[in-house]
Predict the structure.
Amino acid sequence: MNLELFSSEAERIGAVLEAPNEPALRERRLTEIAKQCRGNHHATQTQRLALALKELKSVSTYECRRYLDIYCPPARKFDLVQQGHYIETHWQTIQVESGQQHRVGLYVLRQGNLQAACAARES
C-alpha cells in the first residue's frame, strides 16, 4: 500500500497553515486518528502515522506511542520512507507526566500525498 501525503503543493501549504498547535487540540486529534484507524497490523499503524503527519505536519515518537498506539514508530516511519515520502527526524527533549525528561524523535513531513491512504481506509 503506497500512502500519498499530498495531492498538490497548494494542499500541502494549506494543510500546514491549518495544523493545530495547541497541545490539547493535538492530543484530541491524535486520539481521534487512533480511533478512526483501529488495529494492530503494521499497515494500519503506518496509516495512522501517515494521517497524523498529513494533518499535523510533525509527530513525535512519544505521541506515536501514547496517542496513536504505534509500538515501534521508527518501523512505521521506515514504511512511509520506503514508499517515497521524505520525513525528517529531529531530536528533542520532552518532559512527561512523571516529570522525567526523555529524548525523543520528531518526525517532520516534507512532501508526499495521503489521498491513497484515505481511499484505502474507506474501501
Q: What stands out?
A: Helices lie at 9-18, 23-36, 42-56, 61-66, 73-82, 115-122. The chain has one domain: 9-122. The first helix runs from residue 9 to 18. The beta strands are 58-60, 86-95, 101-111.
